[in-house]
């Protein structure tokens, strides 16, 4: 695993070089660099086993640093842990958490009191009937005070991977504790609700949330976003909401009525999987497109507050984008099944600048798809999915990645060349140089061990402007 910084004398040629990106030197020379990546966080170790197949579908970090994961798995690190479990902050199993869920958990929402609302394909928890929706106590046991009756049932006619069964795909909590849920179902506790509904805090149907006809048949709801003003974004694969023409995304008011002023359009053969709202009221949305009508063909887009496209956004991927998350600096983490982002080879994960262009300072090699992403308060990033290795390191289903190196400089002062970098604890950083691109050997100038602080590496013999530098991190 290597991070490289190229410079020609005091002039930086390319900050970080990834995936065969060719850059030109100050003297018109050119070269290609090998693929590089930020360091996998080795302090987060799942014990080498991770999940036993399937995928980690959702990750929910807790305020205490522990991490909830759910998906289609039955073991973690060789221990029987079916469909949902909790990890300690270091990625090892938390033995204080034990849940008895009968089948696949697709979604989780963490309440302020530590209880967990779950949804998916299951029909019982701890032997008690809980059809597609339930609430667990903080230790994983069933919360009997949340009683959904017969729960969600029926199907909108949509089969996922050949499975026609109804499911709850996504849940979200409102500030008042009420529970929103969407997916493939036609009723809740015997009352007609097509693909979307809201529950009271005790699990009963909230009749004040009137969705009317809900989502059209043959479709499903994929994600939910609760806005600060109480409105709710619903995304998925649908053409209408309560009889109105809303294409793949609708904004509804707190009573369930549609906001007619919000009218995005994504065309046919598309699905919107995820959406986040920016501080200026715009949205970043992503999903999948199989049409050729110039709508949503890049799998990711930025929308204005009325749903119209913001064409100044240049993000793109060549296949499904499952999840997008925002960093504190406005950069965008996207994950999914894609192998190209902004036309550059990547591996299921990419980080975009706020304008959608690829941030080339971030690269990690996942051997399979990445379904879900969570950005932690310290800037580190959790990835979950169906992968088994990251940068060749065994990390089945879940991995934590350092946010990537942040360079300050480089700069030259007299005969000294300096480069500073925000280091990762216990990583080894070496500044090297050589006299020309064609010269095969590199000479070590200085080395330091990372401790989480900013470190400066120097070459005190930079007597001319012909040296080329690289910074390696191991």
**First CA to last CA: what distance?**
6 Å
Rg over alpha carbons:
24 Å
- CATH class descriptor name of the largest domain: Mainly Beta
* Named CATH architecture of the largest domain: 7 Propeller
Helix content: under 10%
Largest sheet: 5 strands, antiparallel
User: Numbering strands along the chain, what is their spatial order in the largest sheet?
Assistant: 2-1-44-41-42
Per DSSP, the total helix count is: 0
Shape: globular
Provide the CATH topology of the largest domain. Methylamine Dehydrogenase, Chain H
Give a verbal description of the structure.
The chain is mostly beta strands and 474 residues long. The chain has 2 domains: 6-39 and 407-473, no CATH class; 56-401, YVTN repeat-like/Quinoprotein amine dehydrogenase (Methylamine Dehydrogenase, Chain H). 0% of the residues lie in helices and 41% in strands. It is built from no helices and 44 strands. Strands 2-1-44-41-42 form a 5-stranded antiparallel β-sheet, with no helix packed on it. A hairpin with a 2-residue loop joins strand 18 and strand 19 (191-192). The radius of gyration is 24 Å and the shape is globular. The termini are close together.
């Amino acid at each position: 695993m290597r991070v490289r910084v190229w410079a020609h004398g005091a002039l930086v040629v390319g900050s970080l070089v990834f995936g065969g990106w060719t850059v030109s030197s100050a003297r018109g020379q050119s070269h290609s660099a090998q693929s590089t990546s930020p360091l996998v966080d080795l302090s987060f170790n799942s014990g080498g086993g991770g999940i036993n197949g399937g995928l980690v579908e959702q990750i929910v970090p807790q305020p205490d640093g522990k991490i909830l994961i759910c998906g289609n798995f039955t073991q973690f690190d060789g221990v029987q842990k079916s469909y949902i479990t909790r990890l300690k902050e270091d990625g090892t199993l938390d033995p204080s958490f034990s849940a008895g869920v009968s089948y696949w958990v697709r979604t989780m929402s963490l309440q302020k009191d530590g209880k967990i609302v779950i949804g998916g394909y299951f029909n019982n928890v701890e032997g008690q009937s809980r059809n597609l929706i339930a609430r667990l106590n903080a230790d994983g046991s069933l919360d009997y005070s949340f009683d959904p009756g017969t729960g969600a049932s029926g199907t909108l006619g949509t089969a996922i991977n050949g499975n026609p069964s109804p499911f709850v795909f996504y849940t979200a909590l409102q500030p008042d504790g009420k529970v929103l849920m969407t997916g493939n179902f036609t009723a809740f506790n015997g009352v007609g609700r097509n693909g979307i509904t809201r529950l009271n805090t005790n699990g009963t149907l909230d009749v004040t949330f009137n969705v009317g006809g809900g989502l059209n048949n043959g479709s499903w709801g994929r994600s939910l976003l609760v806005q600060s003003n109480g409105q709710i974004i619903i995304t998925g694969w649908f053409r209408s909401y309560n009889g109105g023409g809303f294409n793949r995304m609708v904004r509804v008011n707190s009573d369930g009525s549609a906001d007619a002023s919000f009218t995005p359009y994504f065309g046919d053969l598309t699905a919107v999987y995820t959406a986040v709202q920016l501080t200026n009221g715009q949205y970043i949305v992503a999903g999948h497109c199989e049409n050729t009508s110039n709508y949503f063909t890049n799998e990711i887009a930025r929308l204005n507050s009325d749903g119209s496209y913001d064409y100044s956004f240049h993000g793109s991927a060549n296949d499904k984008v499952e999840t997008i998350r925002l960093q504190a600096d406005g950069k965008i983490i996207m994950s999914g099944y894609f192998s190209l982002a902004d036309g550059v080879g990547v591996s299921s994960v990419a980080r975009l600048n706020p304008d959608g262009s690829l941030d080339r300072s971030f690269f990690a090699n996942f051997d399979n798809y990445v379904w879900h992403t969570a950005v932690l308060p310290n800037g580190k990033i959790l990835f979950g999915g169906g992968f088994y290795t990251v940068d060749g390191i065994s990390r089945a289903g879940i991995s934590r990645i350092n946010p990537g190196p942040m360079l300050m400089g480089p700069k030259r002062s007299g005969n000294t060349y300096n480069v500073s970098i925000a280091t990762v604890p216990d990583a080894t950083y070496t500044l090297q140089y050589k006299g020309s691109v064609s010269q095969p050997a590199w000479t070590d100038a200085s080395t330091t061990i990372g401790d989480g602080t900013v470190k400066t590496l120097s070459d005190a013999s930079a007597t001319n402007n012909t040296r080329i530098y690289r910074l390696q991190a191991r």
